[in-house]
Design brief:
2 copies of one chain form a homodimer. The first copy, chain A, is mainly β. In chain A, about 0% of the residues lie in helices and about 50% in strands. The first copy, chain A, contains no helices and 6 strands. In chain A, strands 1, 2, 3, 4, 5 and 6 form a 6-stranded antiparallel beta sheet that branches. In chain A, strand 3 and strand 4 form a beta hairpin. Chain A is globular, with a radius of gyration of 12 Å.
């Protein structure tokens, strides 16, 4: 949409701590439950719930069981934020 | 999110034909069914389905029964596009 991408992901387990210095990031839970761990707090999200992680805020997505989510963020944003490792998805792939 | 708004709306009946010359518009169905009528075609959306209306494309949202939707578009976009009438929602209200 415009210069934004809507991404669908199945997540399971713990993702790494990261942040996006230039953009907010919208998480919407389609199915299951997840937690967005922040430094000092955590946001629990159930089906149909959403949360927007403000830019620059470190966060770690966690799903105890498989969880289906929709992510919305500008094109070209790496899923691992400022960190490039084996969890970094290619920008042309569906993550 | 950034300079975008996420709007929640309960829609019922036929909305007016309109378009947004400057932006795409994302429709996501949370509950129920709706139809996005375009000139010459129509997109049927059920729960969990989404459609992005490209900028400049005339469209008319229709819901036979009450339907709960999430809309994502840049801040400051009028729900009725280029038309200002009694269906135009104030930008500070939840539509």
């Amino acid at each position: 949409m415009n210069d934004y991408q809507v991404k669908l992901a199945k997540i399971s387990g713990e993702f790494i701590w990261h942040k996006h210095d230039t953009t907010d990031e919208l998480f919407y839970v389609i199915k299951g439950n997840m937690k967005i761990v922040l430094r000092g707090s955590a946001i629990n999200l159930s089906e149909g719930e959403m949360y927007i992680v403000p830019k620059g805020i470190e966060h770690k997505p966690v799903a105890e069981k498989e969880c289906h989510i929709m992510l919305i963020e500008p094109k070209g944003i790496l899923n691992t934020g400022e960190i490039n490792n084996e969890l970094t998805a290619n920008l042309d792939e569906w993550v």
